[in-house]
Design goal:
This protein is globular. A hairpin with a 2-residue loop joins strand 8 and strand 9. The chain is built from two helices and twelve strands, in the order E-E-E-E-E-E-E-H-H-E-E-E-E-E. By secondary structure, the chain is mainly β.
Length: about 250
Amino acid sequence: MLAGAVPATALDLFTLWRQPELPLRLAPGAWADYRSSTLEGGRQTVGVVRIQCVGRAADGAWEIELLPLAERPAGLTPEAGEGWLLLLSDRVARREGDLAELVRKVVHWQGGRATELAPAEWREDPLVSSSLRTTFRPQTTRAAGESVRVVGGRDLLCRQFDLAAAETVRVTLPRGTLVQATRREVTAAVHPEVPFLGLAFATERTTTESHVEPPRPGRRDPPAAVRVELMELIAFGGDARRVLGAH
């Protein structure tokens, strides 16, 4: 889990990057704050994170900051000297290839100090790796009408989509075959004014079931593993300023 009690969430930022139904809007100054929660194995993690675009590098790469936020009496504020800076190739707008391969650089800020991470390192970081996880390829996409989300006192009339995918993996064991079936179901509410992927709300439910073939006498299959993630937009705007490394 990320410093500042921000959970790693598969839904935040770019999980649905490939989906043509969702807008993709990158612009210097764009920012969005999300409250997220993850429930797995009876344990829940919650937190708030900001994604903001603070400019473009000389080669055109987008400079994106991921900032853990603290909830204080005065409101949400970034944790001082904490966060991640990502440089994403300008090819991100094409929605082609592996998003992680479009990452030019990842810099981790901790305690006010910056450390550039090698690809092997940031791929293991919970927030960064989940934010760039684009393995979700929905097999079905269904428009689910419209819904109203209240964000910062505004009523946003959002388009809603239901997406689902299933995958079965078979592994040969000495005494049989392990069959693991995973189903992912995502519901997303989208508004074109919201930066990045337009997400005003999203929830994902992942269910994994396993059994051995042929069945072993006297042995029960393990219970299904369920992971539920929820992400809710709480504010957005277009006046972001650089936080990491700013003086």
